[in-house]
Specification:
By secondary structure, this protein is an alpha+beta fold. It has one domain. About 15% of the residues lie in helices and about 30% in strands. The strands form 2 sheets. Strands 1, 2, 3, 4, 5 and 8 form a 6-stranded antiparallel beta sheet that branches. Strands 6-7 form a two-stranded antiparallel sheet. The longest helix has 9 residues. The radius of gyration is 16 Å and the shape is globular.
Amino acid sequence: MHLDPDFSELTYGDCRPRSIPVRNLQKGDFIVFYAGLRSISQEHNLIYALIGFYSVDEVLQAGSIPKERWNQNAHTRRKDSANDTVVRAIPGPSGRLLKCIPIGEYRRRAYRVLPGVLSAWGGISVKDGYLQRSGRLPSFIEPAVFLDWFSKQDVTLIKENNP
């Protein structure tokens, strides 16, 4: 099974071109995971929400990871993945959110970060908070502002995947 991120192992892997900005992360940097989730109360609307947070421990090329750790990320088990990037997160301040944080809405024919949330974060690198899947990972314009906002959300992080 290809789980990425793998919250039970606190890893995340990706391949080019999406992995290019990930390769530049340093210990203590962070990655935020979001997903489009199907609403149980509305038939056609998705709920875009934060689902996970990693404080980076190390960033490795998949090909450099020893065989005894291959089970910790899907990118070490794939054929032709030696150049893929794998991030290992610091236990404790990293994991899946026990309860997701809704952050998006459908407007201007796409899913986007809510304007108030976008402002509270200090902005992201994509136009008007565009959230739909893309080859370019969005980044925070002001990471410290996002971290301040996130610290006020009273989240519980767990080291496990969805059942």
